[in-house]
Write a structure and sequence with these properties.
The chain is an alpha/beta fold. It has two domains: 227 residues, UDP-n-acetylglucosamine1-carboxyvinyl-transferase, Chain (Alpha-beta prism); 212 residues, Enolpyruvate transferase domain (UDP-n-acetylglucosamine1-carboxyvinyl-transferase, Chain). It contains 13 helices and 25 strands. Strands 1, 2, 23, 24 and 25 form a five-stranded mixed beta sheet that branches. Strands 3-16-18-17 form a four-stranded mixed beta sheet. Strand 24, helix 12 and strand 25 form a beta-alpha-beta unit. Helix 1 runs parallel beside helix 7, helix 3 packs parallel to helix 6 and helix 8 runs parallel beside helix 12. The longest helix is centred in the first third of the chain and has 13 residues. It is globular, with a radius of gyration of 21 Å.
């Protein structure tokens, strides 16, 4: 059996094409995979380290573009952050409430987590003025979901289109605590308000309609914040005027990155992969539950706890997947993995329905439209729904010219689909993978047999 021919071509405009040629005899995937550090935890470790007193040491930090944006922003606000690497990053914090006014606009790049969480901290610094922006994609993504609750806390924030789009100007204020009933289950919204509440006298509470990922709550507790959680109502309360203290943080592997290999190992016949050191926080394991519903052969091995986060090695073997319906409370726990789940569904028996995922339309791209259009170019049968997709499985895919829409998860999902498509697939603007997975292509080459 021949390995796939995988080529990365750099264009004159620095854009990259990833070309995957599947051999006529097929291929299999074999090996053990180390994945990048969890992006959500990497962001929060840098942020909390920056506002804590003393020094924070971070091991396993994700070296993608998004955490780099976070580091640059918090350096501009006064924190000392050593050169980013996976071995050890040192953050010398400035203490809560001690941001300096930056000399320039804070640029969050492509990172929605950076800008939305940072807004909560900026808004709660009285007497200081900040301006924040991002790249073309981020400047088109909705900010009202965090601006509105911050304004309820008396924040002063101005921006384009009625304060809903970046660039945003923030005049720091002494905020007032609120109990915010979020209309959506969003870790970014919840975390933004909790971070604002850290520097606000009194108790600030966020209640969600469903449980979103809880990395902020776990890390805030570890850094010394006074936090109470009511699991029956999906509520979390932070007590203001907090003091945070530097910690040692070990970042587990990102389950969102592992998801590409879990689907690849499931759909490519004769495959067996072990993805090492995967964070299996229960608020993030919706992808494992969804693949289990589809009949995937996945086992957790060497389960352990690292720095307060559950971790395991995950073994996946190829299997015949079946269709299912993915909707409801599971969606917040796998929202980032839906593009690669759409790929899994194209190889499953029957029709898979994904609903309640309208949030996908305001990510780095409109991920519903992007996945439907690009998979259909490859011969899939995907129908857009207002809040999801209907995917008829069992249709053989063929190589095609597709595009990442400069969205890392779209580009990598299409690469996994190409492994099971007859012929040659060219993925344009494949450099987007570097946002969260800089060595994705080299790992792809290593596991193909």
């Amino acid at each position: 059996m021949l390995a796939a021919i995988i080529t990365l071509q750099t264009q004159e405009n620095a854009s990259q094409n990833l070309i995957i040629q599947r051999p006529p005899s097929g291929l299999s995937l074999q090996g053990r995979i180390s994945i990048p550090g969890d992006k959500s935890i990497s962001h929060r470790a840098l942020m909390l380290g920056a506002i804590a007193e003393g020094e924070t040491e971070i091991q396993g930090l994700l070296l993608g573009e998004d955490p780099r944006s976070t580091a640059h922003c918090f350096q501009a606000l006064g924190a000392e952050i050593s050169e980013l690497n996976t071995q050890l990053v040192r953050v010398k914090g400035i203490g809560l409430g001690n941001f300096q006014e930056p000399m320039d606009v804070l640029n969050a790049g492509n990172s929605g987590t950076t800008i939305r969480l940072m807004l909560g901290l900026l808004a709660s610094h009285p007497g200081r003025f900040f301006t924040v922006t991002g790249d073309d994609s981020l400047r088109s993504r909705p900010m009202s979901r965090v601006v509105k609750p911050l304004q309820q806390m008396s924040a002063e924030i101005w921006g384009r289109k009625g304060n809903t789009l970046a660039p945003l100007a923030v005049q720091g204020q002494a905020l007032k605590p609120i109990h915010y009933h979020s209309p959506i289950a969003s870790a970014q919204v919840k975390s933004c308000i909790l971070l604002a509440g850290l520097n606000t006298e009194g108790k600030t509470t966020v209640t969600e309609p469903a449980l979103s990922r809880d990395h902020s709550e776990r890390m805030l507790k570890a850094f010394g914040a006074e936090l109470s959680i009511d699991p029956e109502t999906n509520s979390v309360t932070v007590t203001g005027n907090a003091k945070l203290y530097g910690q040692k943080v070990v970042v587990p592997g990102d389950i969102s990155s592992a998801a590409f290999w879990l689907v690849a190992g499931s759909i490519v016949p004769g495959s067996e992969l072990v993805v090492e050191n995967v964070g299996v926080n229960p608020t993030r394991t919706g992808i494992l539950e969804a693949l289990a519903m589809m009949g995937a052969d996945i086992q957790l091995e060497n389960q352990r706890e690292v720095a307060g986060e559950p971790v395991a090695d995950v073994r996946v073997r190829s299997s015949q997947l079946k269709s299912c319906t993915i909707a409801g409370d599971i969606i917040p726990r796998l929202i980032d993995e839906i593009p690669i789940l759409a790929v899994a569904a194209t190889f499953a028996e029957g029709t898979t329905i994904i609903r309640d995922a309208a949030e996908l339309r305001v990510k780095e791209s409109d991920r519903i439209t992007a996945m439907a259009q690009q998979l259909n170019k490859m011969g899939a049968k995907v129908t857009e729904l207002p809040d999801g997709m209907e995917i008829v499985g069992g249709t053989a895919l063929v190589g095609a010219e597709v595009d990442s829409h400069t969205d890392h998860r779209i580009g990598m999902s299409l690469a996994i689909a190409a492994l099971n498509a007859n012929g040659t697939t060219t993925i344009h603007r494949a450099e987007a993978a570097a946002i969260s997975y800089p060595n994705f292509t080299s790992t792809l080459v290593e596991v193909c047999r």
